[in-house]
Amino acid sequence: MKAAGILALIGCLATVTEPKIYTRCKLSKIFARAGLDNYQGFSLGNWICMAYYESHYNTTAETVLEDGSTDYGIFQINSYSWCRRTKLQEKSHCHVACSALLTDDLTDAIICAKKIVKETEGMNYWQGWKKHCEGRDMSEWKKGCEVS
């Protein structure tokens, strides 16, 4: 009886950490509704391209870096300056817990990404964008997605 209860609990915990991986078109619609198209001069295609190369549209993506910091979520936002890993952490320009960037609700991630673009050098913050998206035709990224 105890074993069955423990297995049920483990099953519940496993489903809680299931990653949400968006499709390109679903993400295009979410980003468009959130006002990312042409935000600070960057087209919707730039945002979709960047999210693909940063996280492959995976909301639970986490990357531990050599400096000990971690990049979180669909935009791979770094814990050093932008989000809090602990309550007492002083630097957190986005005023958000890093764990909030790992959920299916992209609100906090989008707000923080907008802040990064506005307060830094645009999308140059993201290496995936610089390497794969910058200066390229972005129209293909929203093609067939029924977004304007």
Radius of gyration, in angstroms, nearest whole number: 17 Å
As residue ranges, the low-confidence spans are: 3-16
Q: Roughly how much helix do the residues carry, as a percent range?
A: 25-40%
Order of helices and strands: HHHEEEHH
Shape: globular
Question: How many DSSP helices?
Answer: 5
Task: Let me know the largest β-sheet.
Answer: 3 strands, antiparallel
What is the beta-strand fraction?
A: 5-15%
| Structure class | mainly alpha
Instruction: Walk across the major sheet and give the strand order.
Output: 1-2-3
Q: Give the N-to-C terminal Cα separation.
A: 56 Å
Care to count the β-strands? Answer: 3
Mean pLDDT: 88
Protein traits:
three-stranded antiparallel β-sheet; mainly alpha; 5% strand; 5 helices; 148 residues; 38% helix
Report on this model:
The chain has 148 residues and is mainly α. The protein is built from five helices and three strands. A three-stranded antiparallel sheet has the order 1-2-3. The longest helix is centred in the first third of the chain and has 15 residues, at 2-16. It is globular. The chain starts with a helix and ends in a 16-residue tail after the last helix. Mean pLDDT is 88; it is low at 3-16.
